[in-house]
Amino acid sequence: MSSEPTLRLAEFDDAERIEELVESSMTASYALSPQDIEMISEAVFDTDHIRDRIDSSETIVVVAELDDVVAGVVEATLDEDESEIQWLHVDPERRGAGVGTALFERIQSELADEGIEEPRAVTLAANTSAGTFFERFGFKQIDERTTDIGGRESVEYVFTAQADEEAQQDESESDADQPPEIPETASAMDDTELYLGEDPFQGTEGWFVETFSDADRSEQYGYYCLNCGSADVAMDNMERVRCGDCGNTRKPDDDYDGAYL
């Protein structure tokens, strides 16, 4: 698989593939029933609707390709007052390659070329991870509204870029949240001696670090929770890392593409 996605404006021939990947993305990432997902897909992502938006002067549609396959899509509406970034989706089978990040940055660039420097970003409330994704780009939620999609009333969250002072304050607070000192070794649940790595990553309650079974740190054993000092840490098939003692949890970050509009 290619290491980086290729980005371009969507074309008519992309419509069927976009419809397919959006339905897959929503199935994997949205807290909606299969019936609701099918309804939204038919109302918004029918091939003809997609082609209409590709052809419209009031909409920008960008796709990302990996190995010549469309792996993600993002749309934005053009309006001098309230331009919005909408419907960012990544194929579940091609997540983890930075597609979501690349799409979000590209759509912001496309809007900037149109003279729009501060677009809003909108997501359905059913997409529970989108807020974290937007926050990585300095956005914060400012509103909640209802919208009609295919005859179904849905809740949307509206995000906007933070003011410079607020963003700097958040950055300062983030800088202050540093990992604790990492022990050289720790004990596994079976008393196996573990050697701790040097690159901690943050969870909901504290930090994690990789563990190794050898002093050279060439054979990874698992993970260690720096929040409570436990090696009872597991990774599930969605790449979530969770401490069995204190509940500290790390969801895949995006570089995982954990949030899709």
Automatic annotation (TrEMBL):
<dbReference type="InterPro" id="IPR000182">
    <property type="entry name" value="GNAT_dom"/>
</dbReference>
<feature type="compositionally biased region" description="Acidic residues">
    <location>
        <begin position="164"/>
        <end position="178"/>
    </location>
</feature>
<keyword id="KW-0808">Transferase</keyword>
<dbReference type="Pfam" id="PF13673">
    <property type="entry name" value="Acetyltransf_10"/>
</dbReference>
<dbReference type="InterPro" id="IPR010916">
    <property type="entry name" value="TonB_box_CS"/>
</dbReference>
<feature type="domain" description="N-acetyltransferase">
    <location>
        <begin position="5"/>
        <end position="162"/>
    </location>
</feature>
<dbReference type="InterPro" id="IPR050832">
    <property type="entry name" value="Bact_Acetyltransf"/>
</dbReference>
<dbReference type="InterPro" id="IPR016181">
    <property type="entry name" value="Acyl_CoA_acyltransferase"/>
</dbReference>
<dbReference type="GO" id="GO:0016747">
    <property type="term" value="F:acyltransferase activity, transferring groups other than amino-acyl groups"/>
</dbReference>
<feature type="region of interest" description="Disordered">
    <location>
        <begin position="164"/>
        <end position="191"/>
    </location>
</feature>
<protein>
    <submittedName>
        <fullName>GNAT family N-acetyltransferase</fullName>
        <ecNumber>2.3.1.-</ecNumber>
    </submittedName>
</protein>
<dbReference type="Pfam" id="PF19133">
    <property type="entry name" value="DUF5816"/>
</dbReference>
<keyword id="KW-0012">Acyltransferase</keyword>
<dbReference type="InterPro" id="IPR043854">
    <property type="entry name" value="DUF5816"/>
</dbReference>
